[in-house]
Specification:
The complex is a heterotrimer of chains A (about 150), B (about 450) and C (about 725). Chain A folds into two domains: about 70 residues, Beta-grasp domain (Ubiquitin-like (UB roll)), CATH 3.10.20.30; about 70 residues, DNA polymerase, domain 1, CATH 1.10.150.120. Chain A contains six helices and five strands; from the N terminus they run ββαββαβαααα. In chain A, strands 2-1-5-3-4 form a five-stranded mixed sheet, sandwiched between helices. Chain B folds into three domains: about 130 residues, Cytochrome Bc1 Complex, Chain D, domain 2, CATH 1.10.760; about 110 residues, no CATH class; about 110 residues, Orthogonal Bundle (Cytochrome Bc1 Complex, Chain D, domain 2), CATH 1.10.760.10. Helix content of chain B is about 40%, strand content about 5%. Chain B has 18 helices and six strands. In chain B, α10 crosses α12. The longest helix of chain B is centred in the first third of the chain and has 18 residues. Chain B is globular. Chain C is an alpha+beta fold. Chain C has three domains: about 200 residues, Aldehyde Oxidoreductase, domain 4, CATH 3.30.365.10; about 160 residues, Aldehyde oxidase/xanthine dehydrogenase, molybdopterin binding domain (Aldehyde Oxidoreductase, domain 4, 2-Layer Sandwich), CATH 3.30.365; about 300 residues, Aldehyde Oxidoreductase, domain 4 (2-Layer Sandwich), CATH 3.30.365.10. In chain C, the strands form six sheets. A seven-stranded mixed sheet of chain C has the order 9-10-7-17-14-15-16, with helices on both faces. A five-stranded mixed sheet of chain C has the order 12-20-19-18-13. In chain C, strands 21-22-23-24 form a four-stranded mixed sheet. In chain C, α16 crosses α17. Classes of the chains: A alpha+beta (about 150), B mainly alpha (about 450), C alpha+beta (about 725). Chains B and C meet through loops of B and loops of C.
């Protein structure tokens, strides 16, 4: 298959087979690191990216489903030199231990904040429920998202 | 049923009431007790029996708010007439039912009247509980009276005029309440009758599984032909059942108790919440219910046959199924943690597409506190058109039923009311009741 | 008193303490008459093994430890920057690499700061002293009058020299000395400061940060097909259709080891599924009844070791209590399943892995492949959170083995989630039985404790510790060994810190291991502290004493008393709060290994008295880690331990039937999600400037478990002794 996605603001042609999960298109064909393989089953959220502003599990989303759609990954939120507000909040709160779950958490939070820019803690907890963190960084993740929500 | 039709119907009723002005709105109050009965005045065996029956009636389901104390009320129940908050049924004297006698309690279940004689809203399904036997009601009373008392006044109901005038309920009752208790049908055996008494009474299955009229009452002429609640469809479980795989009693018992069954899938939405309670119901009672329900179920069959030709008619749907669904739904892992074989799915074969659409959009959420099947939802990745294409493909490929006529509007509605669709983790045994409960 | 001399006296004390404590990884006692070098310097005394300064003044620091997500890279940079007086961003840190760094064994046991941090601190201080000495020599000045800052040595008369200029004249290939001139804690500018972690910015912006992100030219993707149960052997195998799949490069079969290699990752995954269906296995595993683990453990033959036998006189017992506690097998469950990349070229094999021990893993891989160790280089690259001996070493072995079948091209092996949860070693199931007597004053008069456990380490080692070594070469796991006291394995923290005039503690070491086990964060301490601290509450209750007062009455270690009081005060501990109201408070304390960090935890929980469902509301912890390097890093670790331990304690257990592991994904091995996270977690650090570093990464696991069980008991009057405490089960 040949398809195209608008990735972080730029249209990209992609040549992976249509049944390839978006996760592998992003990592292997397009060389991005943010979205991670955690389970491949849509159970942990480490692969979370946005499609048209909504959070999806990229590990179970085939390329054919999102052909022609707008995809946002953590790389689209900012860079080390110019971090976006969510990234700044995570760095300020030092909201990471191993950091593996964090891009997924941030994208899930980004979807929430796009829909509800001033979401409260209760809403943030509900929204992050699909995402797992094993190191126990939850309190800091909540603080970081709250910080970005209050900004 | 929509609010407009309801409004019209009730205005008609208003006319009736004014013309008749027959029903008195206040019947007699029953005297309050001097004090809440001491827990020791109930025998442990009766309390234990009451626990099992309360689980079966799922009293906790409505009478416990999210994050609230058990039985202390305060849960909002959406009705077409407005929002009603469940009451506090802990034995607390002021805000609960601590000063209610057993007689008052029985009258509430049988006639829909509180201790003071005021009408209760039929969101509390007294039109069903009226069928419960005196013995069962006694046991439930004993159980509730031995719960920890919680001081919690329920929030004010938000029902607009004229629906909030309780005397209309007297008319509603006159039309739709058929006071119990259950009368045995001599044409059937004791087990069937016990199952009927429980299923039609405390179990109040038809509160969800029967369609309702414009006044919010069950349509007696369409008993068990399916209903809608909290964004989900409760399937027909009577003669018109669309289940592609016939139900046996053991299968039904397993489904009710465990919340899933190998050939019938996983209980979802409000039924998941029900099955979490049924784990604590009495085995014999569940068996009787299963017997009663299964003996009344039709078998439509006609699931199974895979129709490859469906593919050519709906290439988009076929592609979505193959690329997104087949990996789990044709995988090696069986239920409850693997994907259901779709040829066996009532989601695909049922009379309403709503549940299938809910599953595609929202999946099955993780249970924070135990094992549960998890299915990812695709609301973010799929457009309405894609959901329609996939749903109609599944219908054509895995059933011999006619296509759903209203798929587009169902999909749009399911997405629009996403926040209000009940997303409950699948059933599963709660903590061992032998270690908990009681004072 | 002279602060420097005081410090030397104390660090001299540090040296002595370490020489008295025999380590499991073989550090011997000090030679007679010669003081032992601090930390890992004892094994690698050359300064340039640890620190190098180049002509431009750029500094490279080498550590044999690995970043596990605990922030050790940042902490070590802080230590080095402080003692060298160089800005952190001018220091490059090289972590565990068999070609470049000292051999510091495993990054485990909360030893990193104690061993590597101490070594680097001392080495850095000596390098600075040598640079100053060189400047003094050049300027004919007194070394004592010179100062250092920002990589520059300055004289009072204004002369300056950059480290780079001075370093050229120095030979750092010299032995370290035991008397390094360390900085006073009051002079710290970088240490004991919450310096932001150096690795976080890349991790939140999609920078390459993990072994999973390694992409080498020509890299192939591989997936292993693992058997359905332990010890299964390949009976039938038909690779033909998989070999013909477009994009498949090779199907590897080596004994019972089966893998597929492809150009693209998705191809490898699909080919793996197809290949798995084309394999037939002879299964022979026999697993115990998962529902009756305590009885099973007690039925096994055990090697008993009385690790404490104190037979002091005590008053006649007024009351005797006994109890039995148990825990199931627990999984690491790291969010990122194990991964490794291996490249065999020109007879040399390089493996990138998130193993905790590059040297031991290299040895095991060398043995498995029959290759000399010198031909193998193992480089640590970060994985997801590492909580002990997980699948990393095995993934490295898988990649190494496959690389020998596709020589010339790098191979990346990624374990699937199901494989990780089924095949990684677990934390061992354990049983504890304890009996104690209270005297008429309500003090513990007699204490008898026994713990049943497998080994808590089957780390490589040998080729037989590797799954690939077992399935490809038929190598076998060596007989398990116990980690001796004072560190301990299953008996870690089995000896309470409390003052017990009469006490007997027996460690029952079980050699039968039907389920694969090894080290999981805090090893036996999680269970022993859970049991001891739960039982302390039961005793306090029987004595009619407040749980915090009861502990203080039995503690004479002043630092222990401090953390207990701090946690209780900051929590707002209420004496005499009634039990059974549905809201409860619980307390627990332990000093990890009785050697490392002190940690006390108080928590508040609600219990729905109807359903028994608990809800953790708030947690307050106090921790004493000695000299703190990064207070925020320390708090992060303890917060993490609190949440992780809550998950273990409330919900987790490995599920299996008579043959196979059944908990293989997040449906069947659920862990805590946001809806169960407490409302607040506070960690108060009791700072001890100048004191030796104390390992803290594992100090919170045990106390949190007991604090939770105690809070639930207080809220509901139900004492729960068998973990997990609150799990729902889909039948």
């Amino acid at each position: 298959m040949s398809g195209r996605i608008e990735l972080n603001g730029e249209w990209r042609e992609v040549r992976s087979e249509g049944d390839t999960p978006l996760l592998y298109v992003l990592r292997d064909e397009l060389g991005l690191n943010g979205a991670k393989y955690g389970c491949g089953l849509g159970q942990c959220g480490a692969c979370t990216v946005l499609v048209d502003d909504e959070a999806v599990f990229s590990c179970v989303t085939p390329l054919s489903m999102v052909d022609g759609k707008r995809v946002t990954t953590v790389e689209g939120l900012g860079t080390v030199e110019h971090p976006g507000p969510l990234q700044r909040a995570f760095v300020e709160e030092q909201a990471a231990q191993c950091g593996f779950c964090i891009p997924g958490m941030m994208m899930r939070a980004a979807a929430l904040l796009r829909a509800e820019p001033h979401a409260d803690e209760k809403r943030i907890r509900e929204a992050l429920q699909p995402n797992l963190c094993r190191c126990g960084t939850h309190m800091r993740i909540l603080r970081a998202v709250k910080k970005a929500a209050q900004a | 049923m929509n609010a407009g039709a309801a409004r019209n119907a009730l205005l008609a009723l208003a006319g009736l009431a004014l013309a008749g002005s027959c029903a008195t709105s206040e019947t007699d109050a029953i005297a309050r007790l001097e004090a809440a009965p001491p827990p020791t005045s109930f025998s442990p065996a009766l309390v234990e029996r009451g626990a099992r029956l309360t689980a079966l009636g799922d009293c906790q389901g409505c009478h416990t708010a999210e994050d609230g104390r058990a039985f202390a009320g305060g849960r909002p129940v959406e009705t077409p007439f407005g929002t009603i908050y469940s009451t506090n049924i802990t034995p607390e004297p002021r805000t609960g039912i601590g000063l209610w006698s057993e007689q008052a309690f029985r009258r509430a279940l049988r006639e829909g009247l509180d201790r003071g004689g005021r009408h209760l809203y039929p969101a509390f399904p007294y039109d069903r509980f009226t069928l419960a036997s005196d013995e069962d009601i006694r046991a439930i009373y004993a159980f509730l009276m031995t719960r920890p008392p919680v001081s919690a006044p329920p929030p004010r109901n938000r029902i607009p005029f004229p629906f909030n005038v309780r005397s209309f309920l007297a008319v509603w009752n006159a039309l739709y309440l058929h006071p119990g208790p259950w009368k045995n049908d001599p044409a059937h055996d004791a087990r069937w009758n016990r199952g009927g008494e429980l299923a039609e009474g405390l179990g109040h299955c038809s509160s969800c599984h029967t369609p309702r009229n414009a006044l919010g009452a069950e349509r007696g002429d369409r008993h068990f032909e399916g209903g809608d609640t909290e964004g989900w469809h409760a399937y027909a479980i009577g003669a018109t059942s669309q289940s592609p795989v016939g139900w046996t009693e053991p299968a039904m018992r397993k489904y009710l108790r465990d919340g899933w069954e190998a050939q019938h899938g996983v209980a979802r939405g409000p039924m998941a919440a029900v099955s979490r309670g049924l784990v604590h119901a009495d085995e014999g009672d569940l068996a009787a219910i299963a017997h009663y329900i299964v003996s009344g179920m039709g078998h439509a069959g006609g699931g199974g046959a895979r129709k490859e030709s469906a593919a050519s008619a709906n290439a988009q749907g076929e592609r979505l199924y193959r690329d997104a669904c087949a990996q789990c739904h044709e995988g090696d892992e069986s239920l409850p943690f693997g994907g259901l074989v779709l040829a066996q799915s009532i989601g695909v074969a049922g009379e309403s597409p709503r549940n299938l659409v809910n599953m595609i959009l929202y999946g099955l959420p993780a249970a924070g506190d135990g094992t549960a099947p998890i299915m990812p939802g695709f609301a973010g990745a799929m457009s309405d058109a894609q959901v329609v294409a996939l749903s109609s493909y599944l219908r054509a490929r895995f059933t011999n039923r006619p296509p759903w006529p209203d798929l587009e509007s169902v999909v749009a509605k399911a997405r629009k009311e996403g926040e209000r669709v009940a997303k409950t983790p699948a059933g599963g045994a709660g903590l061992d009741p032998a270690r908990w409960g009681g004072t | 008193m002279n602060a420097r001399r005081e410090f030397l006296r104390r660090s001299g004390g540090l040296v002595v303490a370490f020489s008295l404590a025999p380590y499991a990884h073989g550090q011997g006692a000090a030679k007679a008459g010669k003081p032992r070098l601090p930390g890992s310097l004892a094994k690698d005394p050359y300064l340039d093994a640890w620190i190098r300064v180049d002509a431009s003044g750029a500094v490279t620091v080498f550590t044999g430890k690995a970043e596990l997500g605990q922030g050790i890279k940042t902490a070590i940079l802080q230590v080095a920057a402080e003692e060298l007086d160089v800005a952190m961003d001018r220091i490059a840190l090289v972590t565990a690499d068999t070609a470049r760094t000292p051999n510091e064994g495993f990054t485990a046991g909360s030893h990193s700061l104690q061993d590597s941090g101490t070594a680097i601190r001392n080495a850095a201080a000596q390098v600075r002293a040598l640079l100053v000495q060189e400047a003094a020599r050049r300027w004919n000045a007194e070394a004592r009058a010179l100062t250092t800052a920002n990589g520059i040595v300055s004289a009072p008369d204004g002369r300056r020299a950059r480290y780079g200029e001075l370093a050229a004249a120095l030979d750092l290939h010299v032995d370290a000395r035991p008397d390094a001139p360390l900085k006073e804690a009051s002079d710290f500018r970088v240490m004991d400061r919450p310096v932001p972690r150096v690795d976080i910015p890349a991790k939140v912006t999609g920078g390459a940060a993990y072994v999973h992100d390694l992409r080498l030219p020509g890299m192939l993707h591989a997936r292993v097909v693992r058997p359905p149960s332990y010890g299964a052997t390949l009976a039938a195998f038909d690779p033909r259709s998989v070999e013909q799949r477009p994009g498949v490069v090779k199907v590897v079969r080596d004994g019972s080891f089966v893998a597929v290699v492809a150009e693209r990752e998705w191809t490898a995954i699909q080919a793996m599924a197809e290949l798995a269906r084309a394999c037939r296995w002879n299964e022979s595993a026999r697993l115990p009844d998962e529902g009756k683990l305590g009885a099973f453990l007690a039925s096994l033959p055990s090697k008993d070791d009385v690790i404490l036998d104190r037979g002091g006189a005590s008053a006649a017992p007024a009351r005797t209590l006994e109890a039995s506690y148990s825990r199931p097998y627990l999984a690491h469950g790291s969010i990122g399943p194990s991964c490794a990349v291996a490249h065999l070229a020109d007879g040399r094999l390089t493996v990138w892995s998130h193993t905790q021990g590059v040297y031991p893993d290299r040895k095991a891989i060398a043995e498995m492949l029959g290759m000399p160790e010198e031909k193998i280089r193992l480089v640590h690259a970060e994985g997801a959170g590492c909580y002990g001996h997980n699948g990393a070493d095995d993934a490295a072995a898988d990649a190494a083995l496959i690389a020998t079948h596709v020589s010339g091209r790098p191979v990346r092996v990624q374990w699937m989630r199901e494989q990780e949860l089924a095949w990684e070693p677990f934390g061992a199931a354990m049983l504890v039985r304890v009996r104690a007597a209270l005297d008429s004053r309500g003090r513990i008069a007699d204490w008898e404790y026994a713990v049943w456990s497998n080994t808590h380490s089957t780390r490589p080692g040998t080729g037989g510790s590797l799954l690939a070594g077992q399935s490809a070469r038929g190598l076998r796991l060596p007989p398990p060994r116990a980690i001796p006291q004072p560190e301990g394995g299953g008996d870690r923290n089995a000896i309470p810190l409390y003052v017990l005039p009469r006490a007997r503690v027996t460690s029952r070491f079980l050699e039968d291991m039907p389920v694969r086990v090894s080290a999981l964060r805090s090893l036996g301490a999680y269970m022993n502290v859970f049991a001891v601290e739960s039982f302390m509450d039961e005793l306090a209750d029987a004595a009619g004493a407040d749980p915090v007062d009861f502990r203080l009455a039995h503690l004479d270690d002043p630092r222990a008393r401090d953390v207990v009081r701090t946690a209780a005060e900051r929590f707002g501990w209420k004496k005499g709060a009634a039990a059974g109201s549905g809201v409860g408070q619980g307390f627990a304390f332990a000093r990890y290994k009785n050697l490392a960090a002190y940690c006390a935890i108080a928590c508040e929980a609600e219990v729905d008295l109807e359903t028994g469902k608990p809800r953790l509301k708030r947690v307050v912890a106090a921790v004493d880690s000695g000299q703190v390097v990064n207070p925020d890093g320390l708090r992060n670790q303890i917060e993490g331990a609190i949440v992780q331990s809550s998950s273990w304690t409330l919900y987790e257990r490995v599920a299996f039937d008579a043959r196979r592991i059944r908990s293989i994904d997040w449906q069947t091995y659920p862990i805590l999600r946001f809806d169960s996270v407490p409302e607040s977690v506070e960690v108060h650090v009791v700072d001890r400037p100048g004191a030796p570093f104390l390992g803290s990464g594992e100090a919170g696991q045990g106390p949190m478990a007991a604090a939770l069980a105690n809070a639930i008991a207080h809220a509901s009057r139900r004492r729960l002794r068998d973990l997990p405490l609150a799990r729902r089960e889909l039948s």
